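General statements about sequence and structure are easier to judge against a single worked case. For one protein, we set the task of working out the structure tokens from the amino acid sequence alone. The sequence in question and its structure tokens are set out directly beneath this paragraph.
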Amino acid sequence: MLDVSKIKKIENILGIEFINKQLLLEALTHSSMANEIPDTPHNERLEFLGDTVIDFIISNYLFIKYPAFSEGDMTFYRSQLVKGETLAEITKTLDLHDFLFLGHGEEKSGGRQKQSNLAGLFEAIVGSIFLDRGLTETEKLVIKIFNPKLAKIGCSRFQHPKTELQMYTQSQLGTLPEYKIISKKGPDHSPIFEIQLSLSDGKLMFGTGKNKSLAENDAAEKMLLFIKDKSTE
């Protein structure tokens, strides 16, 4: 299963050379492979680790780079940077999803394009780099990958989307936004929540996130952007 040429291609994409290439192989292996080939090491544990490492690196970056940011500001920007949608986008931009090992059933069901699988893959790769090269090298790589998105911090984004949307609806509609959980998908250690946001004037918006609060923030931000775009037409 260890394809040396594929491993080399991924190392070239990431700009690092793994000492323990089995860690990278494990990061690339979806749990559906273990269902079809018993005892196959898969990436769920590395995904859990990588999720924590990414959260720390981004939190540390925001804390040091923006001393004037409040806790709420840092929480908001971190949530936007580490949400599944963003991580899946990074995975596709780097073409890492092409190297994901999937079981036949998962492949046939479109697993290579699923947001949860793509986000989980990136988290697992970061987890494997952390174990193989340590925090310093991992931090350098993560910041480099996230740099285009980090550069946009403070540009045309809402500081506290739920609060701003609530202020808007109270002043314009005399009511409060309503949030409802539509679904919870993915493994227990890395769930993806989907929220439906509805306004009393009939507007609907959906958001996703690693927890209910992040999903609500995502939906609120999308609604604010939609309202802003409509007001400029």
